[in-house]
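User: Sequence in, structure out. Go.
Assistant: Echoing your sequence, followed by the structure tokens.
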Amino acid sequence: MRFQRELTAAVLIPLVLALVVAGPTWAFSLVAGGAGILALLEFYAMLTGAGLTVPRWAGLTLFCACLAAAHRGAALELVIAIGAAILVLPALVMFSSPPEPVLLASSASTVFSTLYVAAGAASFIGLRHLGWKPVVLLLAVVWAGDSAAYYVGRSWGNTKLAPVVSPKKTWEGFWGQIVGGTAIGGATAALIAGGEQAPAGAALGCGVSAIAVVGDLVESTFKRSCFVKDSGAILPGHGGFLDRLDSLLFAAPFLLLALHLLPGGLLR
């Protein structure tokens, strides 16, 4: 079906923005956690499809523990959950008695996939605790930048950005994403926080856009390693949840760190 990508975005974007701006923090955390669970299940499915052993229920439990700690702002609980993932998941892989050649790969992949998605989702929740404005900036920059990269690359892209990892991505699309993200970052900051914050918003938009590209390419390496084109097919025209969250999983921690390092009051 033509325009599946656009139709899916037209339905989801208003719903997500309404939740971010008007919804309570706990509801946002639940939705972010639910999306993270779906993305993690897709990652687990890719790993098992590649012949690896994954203790799913234990991984999901520890993932939820990480997000619950992030929602509560409990740093010690978060450290304990991360440590448990590092220690418990490899032990469960061992006790499941997979073929010896996949023992290390299964353990490493399960721990990594769990903490990889948890880090991004927990940072997303952390941003919402700062207020709705940082989340709106993040979503606006990533969504606008991704769209700019897609349409610029499709229209003028000739020079491959990472041909081995993602053959369709081009340098023209990359610069379209940087320019688009920078412009939207400045405009969004001015709109939601005042014109004096436009320069900071543009700078953050530029940084978030660059990090988002890296996140997209990194997730592409995972899919190639598991010999799949998309992580799933739940979102028409967009692939799976992991495909849609790949940029955000990298960009959310970057923005959360940047806002903590920059002068207080930015986007509050």
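User: And one key feature?
Assistant: The first strand starts at residue 160 and ends at 162.
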